[in-house]
Specification:
heterodimer, A: alpha+beta, four-stranded antiparallel sheet, B: mainly alpha, 75% helix
Chain lengths: 602, 320
């Protein structure tokens, strides 16, 4: 569980919400709603990944994608941002992948069926689908060795994969690989047959390793072709890649895509993969070609998409555009729930917030609806009442939309009397803080983060605190302040999280397990280190089965709420837009981004 | 003259070395600028970062790193690789240069073509309605932010989202070599927007300069010699008044070659400015270094060209 996807989500949703803040505060709250997944509400008339038809699309045509920003990495061993995934999941086939309308149950993709986990939970056996071929110039059939190489290269310092150490460190020999960063091979991955791959683990955490096989790292890479590029520092495989999915980045006869199918900062072109066999794949792949234009002004792009034809924007549209889409082009607007969350991290280890009643007082006092209005209101947010967010297994069991029934969670608009009660319980008879500590509060610049931070700061003052309030760039907030325990920041009002895959451990473990506190790059911003919760998390990690895991992590979520380890305020929903003649299908598991393998033209 | 030019070129090279050194130090010394950490990604283990540090030569002394960097830049013109796309920076710059040169050179022709005649007419018809209208319009155009102006013209005249669908809109840029007519059409609005502010400034400059020049004794002498007013103005007045403008023009073009980011962004033109902006937002320092160096090169070359042009335009200026 790494901060990168979290950062991407948070930044994207911050930009989005900032975009929405001025114009849409009232839109969602005043509109009728329909039920989406997990009981979450989506404004009436807009699309959601759950309502978009995955079959019956028209074949052929070229889709134009207008993206304001460039990809970070197009190498499946390096890709980690949502915007990268739009290309990766159209061109590559990991062992497992999600259908567009789910974030809970992955389906076999490069795997031919479900994985087999040994009784001791330390061995995962997966059979590889036959008849899948690499795109030119490799052309040959994919084998298990290609999957093994793909994962091993994640430990190569020339690649290096951003989440390898988070999810694959329990592979036997991976610890040494992580240290030496050579890229294997290592004993934790064996291929007893060309269609079988076995993962040997040093501890019984097969479920989380298995869950991580939906990530692009498990997409096969042909060693004989890629090794020459992986030897470069850094690897150039992304610029010479081959595909297994229905589409491939346009390339020359040597497989070179740089300057042909991908011009950094300018464009990318996806064409059909001539070796793709639809009989091996459940994706319909209606489109003939996808032209991705990179750059431009977000408001211009948005208008071009809404007023033009055959286009989508595959990132959060600008403020005025979401407003315009909601008011005039509602059928061309998709809202995807379950994007991630935002909460206030408070220092559980030292200072006033090491007292549980002070934390509860802040929770009770906070007007969470005001923070959500600043982010765009009900169209793009729900008031957050606990930590597992919608669409993640365990959400309902942890309390669903209303959340656990504890008094400090019962007042989304805030309750000052209740807050005073908890301050008294904390040892402040007046109901206000009377200590000498001046709180260090570090938030993020830019709308709506700054507005949210201001609201939090004012709430702290209302509780009697003196604050030293600073707003810095979002990346600096994480890298220099909130992610560095030595800085002793008392309150970080703008942190947030999004999971790498649909497992509650991916939501709760890194931000709240004491073992994950790091001296730098720390994502347990509140320094939450409750031994009982830590033990429960370590035990839940080893559980198998979606329901068992959901139940265990939901119970942990309730403990987190009971301890008020952080103060939640926002579950994000993400908007996307399409032209009127596009039958877009968004990926619920990827912040609603359009899935080119399912999208078609009308 | 030749010796002078050689001396200027040598000074230019020295200046480039200075800029290279400065950018190197800035990106190595700044706390967020650890290339190994940036290259490794935000979740990389300390071991991976250490391995990358070794591979990139960052475990060598700063002086040794500087020497290697300078050698690569000046002997091999190797500006490194993007942290994200792994594409060679040299190739990225070459790939973007055409769009930026098209935009800048075209816009400069537009602003000279509009600004200078207006300035000349205003200088010769001072305090008339025409003069006041021209200078008033110039003031408005100077005050209009390029980005805003770009959005306005797109919403008014772009073929896709405009009210009056006349010109190709944002994202329509094609290279001159692939389709000259489309290239021309796609750049019309960007040229006008980029030129608007500069045309206004140049008009005001030309008006001011020419007004002063036309009061000079030698202008009176020229008239006394019986030269036609057109010849007096163009041969003696404008030629003298234009010298300071040439200095600014060369520097303006050089600056825009590295920084026309606003117009490039609003019209979605993949040029150097946008490359630089994107690299800054991604902390992709090899690209930032490359674009800074290219920008410095433009400035140095522009200065040399200006100095030579001075000698040509002003007979009083001769170099030894």
């Amino acid at each position: 569980m790494s901060p990168i996807r979290m950062l991407k989500h948070v930044l994207a949703s911050a930009a989005l919400a900032g975009a929405l803040a001025l114009g849409l505060a009232a839109c969602g709250s005043s509109s009728s709603s329909v039920s989406g997944g997990s009981g979450i509400t989506v404004a009436k008339g807009v699309q959601t990944p759950r309502t978009e038809a995955q079959s019956g699309g028209k074949r052929g045509g070229t889709l134009t994608v207008l993206n304001h920003t460039d990809f970070e990495h197009i190498d499946p061993g390096q890709a980690y941002f949502n915007i990268d995934y739009e290309v990766i999941y159209a061109t590559q086939r990991p062992l497992f992948s999600y259908k567009p309308n789910t974030f809970a149950a992955p389906s076999p993709d490069m795997a031919s069926g479900p994985a087999q986990i040994s009784a001791d939970g330390k061995t995962i056996t997966i059979h590889i689908r036959s008849g899948v071929h690499f795109s030119p110039p490799v052309n040959r059939e994919v084998t298990s060795a290609d999957v093994a190489y793909a994962i091993e290269r994640g430990a190569n310092a020339n690649v290096p994969n951003p989440y390898f150490s988070s999810y694959f460190s329990s592979l036997v020999g991976a610890g040494k690989e992580i240290k030496e960063a050579t890229g294997g091979p290592f004993p934790g991955i064996t291929t007893p047959g060309k269609d079988t791959i076995v993962f040997h683990l040093s501890k019984a955490n097969a479920p989380i390793v298995l869950a991580a096989l939906v990530l692009p790292l498990s997409a096969p890479v042909p060693e004989e072709f890629a090794k020459q590029y992986d030897a470069k520092k850094p690897t150039e495989y992304g610029n010479y890649q081959v595909a297994t999915g229905p589409y491939m980045l346009k390339s020359n006869s040597a497989g070179k895509v740089l300057g042909i199918g991908y011009e950094p900062g300018k464009s990318a072109t996806l064409v059909r993969n001539p070796t793709w066999n639809p009989l091996t794949d459940s994706r319909p792949a209606y489109l003939d070609q996808i032209n991705i234009q990179i750059g431009g002004d977000a408001t211009v792009i948005g208008r071009q998409v809404l007023e033009g034809s055959g286009m989508v924007q595959n990132e959060a549209p600008a403020q005025s555009i979401v407003k315009l889409a909601y008011e005039k082009f509602r059928k061309q607007l998709e809202i995807s729930p379950g994007v991630g969350d935002h909460y206030i991290a408070v220092d559980n280890k030292q200072g006033p917030f090491s007292n549980i009643n002070v934390r509860k007082a802040l929770w009770a006092a906070l007007d969470r609806t005001a923070l959500d209005k600043a982010r765009g209101g009900a169209l793009v947010t729900n008031v957050m009442t606990h930590f597992i967010y919608p669409e993640i297994p365990g959400f309902e069991a942890a309390g669903g939309l209303t959340g656990p029934r504890v008094d400090y969670n019962d007042y989304p608009e805030g309750n000052t009397a209740l807050a005073a009660k908890y301050m008294k319980l904390a040892g402040y008879p007046s109901g206000s803080y009377t200590g000498s500590k001046t709180l260090q509060v570090v938030g993020s610049t830019g709308s709506p983060a700054a507005e949210d931070a201001e609201i939090v700061n004012q709430t702290l003052k209302n509780l009697g605190f003196k604050t030293r309030f600073n707003l810095v760039d979002s990346s600096a907030m994480y890298a220099k302040y909130c992610g560095v325990p030595a800085e002793a920041i008392d309150v970080c009002p703008n942190v947030g999280w999004a999971a790498d895959f649909g497992d509650p451990q991916a939501v709760l473990d890194v931000p709240f397990n004491g073992k994950n506190i790091m001296s730098t790059g720390n994502n347990n911003w509140g320094l939450v280190n409750n031994p009982e919760i830590n033990r429960a998390m370590d035990a839940a990690e080893l559980l198998a089965g979606t329901q068992a895991r959901a139940a265990a992590w939901a119970a942990i979520d309730r403990k987190l709420v009971a301890q008020a380890v952080a103060i939640p305020f926002d579950w994000d929903k993400a908007p996307s837009i399409e032209s009127s003649n596009v039958a877009g299908v968004g990926d619920l598991w990827d912040t609603g981004e359009w899935d080119y393998s399912y999208t078609s033209l009308k | 003259m030749t010796r002078y030019i050689i001396r200027r070129i040598l000074w230019g090279v020295l200046l480039l070395i200075g800029v290279t050194a400065l950018t190197f130090v800035l990106f190595r010394v700044l706390p967020t600028g650890d290339p190994a950490r940036l290259r490794a990604g935000r979740s990389a283990s300390p071991e991976v970062i250490a391995a990358l540090r070794h591979d990139l030569g960052l475990d060598k002394s700063l002086l040794a790193q500087f020497w290697i960097y300078m050698k690569e830049v000046f002997l091999h013109f190797n500006l490194g690789y993007s942290y994200y796309s792994s594409a060679p920076v040299k190739g990225l710059l070459a790939n973007r240069l055409g769009a930026t040169v098209s935009l800048t050179v075209g816009a400069s022709i537009v602003w000279l073509g509009i600004g200078l005649p207006i300035g000349i007419v205003s200088a010769l018809r001072r305090h008339t309605l025409l003069d006041r209208a021209s200078m008033g319009t110039a003031l408005v155009l100077v005050s209009a932010p390029e980005y805003w102006l770009g959005l306005i013209v797109l919403y008014l005249f772009a073929a896709d989202i405009g009210k009056v669908k006349v010109f190709p809109g944002a994202g329509s840029y094609v290279a001159l070599t692939s389709d000259p007519w489309k290239w021309f059409g796609s750049l019309l609005l960007p040229w006008l927007v980029l030129a608007a502010g500069s045309a206004a400034i140049y008009a005001r400059l030309m008006r001011g300069n020419l007004s002063e020049v036309m009061e000079e004794d030698y202008i009176r002498t020229a008239r006394a010699k019986g030269l036609s007013e057109r010849r007096v103005v163009m041969r003696h007045g404008v030629r003298a008044a234009i010298n300071p403008i040439m200095t600014i023009l060369a520097l303006d073009i050089a600056t825009l070659l590295g920084s026309a980011v606003l117009v490039e962004t609003v019209f979605d033109i993949p040029g150097i400015g946008r490359l630089n902006y994107d690299a800054i937002t991604h902390s992709d320092f090899p690209i930032v270094q490359g674009t800074v160096l290219l920008g410095a090169l433009f400035i140095v070359v522009a200065n040399i060209v200006v100095d030579i042009a001075y000698a040509y335009l002003d007979p009083r200026v001769r170099y030894s």
